[in-house]
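Hello,

I think I submitted the zinc ion job twice by accident. Can you confirm which output corresponds to this input? Input:
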Amino acid sequence: MDSPFILRDIIYCHECKEKLITKKSTPAKSKKKYLYYCCPSCRKKISTDKIHESIFADFSLRWGRELKFYEKQTHKILVRWKKGIEHKINDLNENLEKLKYHLSTLGKNNEYYQELKEIFEMQILTTTKEIQEYHTTREQIDFLIEDEMQTELIGRFKQDIHRYSNEEKRAIFLLAIEKIGVNFSKDNHIRIDYRLTPYVQIEDLMKQLDIESA
Ligand SMILES: [Zn+2]
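Support: Only one job matched these inputs. Its output is below.
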């Protein structure tokens, strides 16, 4: 649906660290609907129009200034990720060789023969699967290194933000922004944490794998 709450799930109360919830209200004598993001803990709120305008302004300014830099940075990070993944694959391949060696030298007269055999076979299977998954991720990264569509998409977006539908705006913000904090007691000061790259899934995976981006 084309929900007007395009920042849902990425907007937080700076003080309570709570995710803001969405709220609609229509005062008795008014025809206009008022839309807010509201903290479930301290109950403070901010109108969607107000915060969306601030985010658009920051976003346009940032992308106007930094798009070229962002493209270069993204490229560098992708190359670093690729190296990190290759390193993991090498380690796993070494493990796999060791496991295979253990299995091949396991004596049938060993009193735990059957048990050990099953353990090694299971480990060989999971390691092989893991290696395959890393290969898939590396292929994805290779593809992204070639493809600059995402940054182009964001670049085009900043030029005429208001022509996009809410869902389109939301999709771009999810690619570019990790988190927005609203400081209600400091004049609704907004802090935007931009993502390092538009590749959300891979970025999260690299964090899990502890592969550095910088
Ligand atoms: Zn709060």
